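Human: Not sure, check this?
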Amino acid sequence: MRVVAAMSGGVDSAVAAARMLDAGHDVVGVHLALSQSAATLRESARGCCTIEDAGDARRVADVLGIPFYVWDMAERFRRDVVEDFTAEYARGRTPNPCLRCNEKIKFAALLDKAIALGFDAVATGHYAQVVEVPGVGGGVRRELHRAVDSAKDQSYVLGVLDAEQLARAFFPLGDTTKPQIREEAAERGFFVARKPDSHDICFIPDGDTRAWLGRALGEAPGDIVDTDGAVLGRHAGAFGYTVGQRKGLGLSRPAPDGQPRYVVEVRTDTNQVVVGTADLLGVDAITGDHARWCGPAPAGVVRVGAQVRAHGAEVPATAWADGDRVEVRLDERIRGVAPGQSVVLYEGTRVVGSATIASARLDRD
C-alpha cells in the first residue's frame, strides 16, 4: 500500500512513519507547511510547524531512507483553521482548532491530495486505534477507538473523521505508551527521541490567546456584569473570554458572599461578559450541530459516553441524531460547557462521532 506519512518533525510522527515502513508499505514522508511566515526555530515546547521542525522531519526521513516532501498548505490552513478560529471567538464561541485542522487539513486537504497523486492512505502520529470488524454483507469495517495510553489518547480530536476518511487512515501508535515511543525512537537512532512535545495552539506559540485575538480583532472595550446587569468591571473585548473562565477577570468588586465568580455567558450583541457563581455553570443537556459520524449515524436514542474537552472526563449520556444536529442528555451535570466546543460520543472505547456544541443548558433541577 502506498502511504503518505504526515511528519511534523516530532517523535510521534517519526515513529509512526517508521512503523508503516516496517509493516511493508511504500512510504513517503510529507511535512505540511502551515504558516505563510514560519518561524525559524521553535519556542521551547510551544507551537510547531517551524522551519526547524521541517528540517527535523527531513532528517528522520533520511534515516529511514524514504522520499520526503514539504507540501504548502498555508493558505488552506489560514482559511479553514485560523480564520474559523477567529470568527468563532468573535461570535462569543470557544472553538477547538485541533479538531478543525484534523477535519479540514490532515484528513481532507492532505488525504485528498494524497489520493489524487495515487496514494492509498495517510498515516499520522496520533494516539488512537483503528479496529477492523466484520462489515454488513461481508468485508470489514474500520472503527476508531481510544488509544491504550489514556494520558495521550487523541481520539477526541479525531472524532470529526467520517467513515470514508477513516477507511484511509492509519494511527500506528495507538497500542503503545508515550515512554515506549521515546524508547523506540532512541533505539532507531532518531535524534528527536527526546524532543519536547508541542502543545497549545500551534499558530499562537506564546500561548496568549487573548492577546492574539486582540491583535486579530482589535480592542472592543465593554462591561463585565453580573447576572442582574450590575457593572463589575471592564474588558478589552468580549471575544477574550470563555464560559467557565475564572482567572483574568480583573474584577474590582468581590461577590457579596465572597464566592469566586466565573464567566457564565458571553454576549457579543451587547459586548458584555456575564459573570456568576459556580452553580450557574452546571448543564445536563447539549445541542450540537455539524454532526460527523465515524460510521453509521445512531438509529434512535442510544446510550453513549460524552466528552466535551480533549482531556476531560467521559460522562454517561443518551443521544440521538436529527439530521445534522445531535441532542445529548447527560446523566449528571458538568460545568463550563461553551458553545463552539465539541462533544464527542463514545460507545465503550469506540468513537461514534462528534458535533459542535450550539447550546448547553440545565434541563433537570
Notes: The chain has three domains: 2-194, 219-280, 282-361. The mean pLDDT is 91. The domain at 2-194 is CATH 3.40.50.620 (Rossmann fold). The two ends are 55 Å apart (CA to CA).
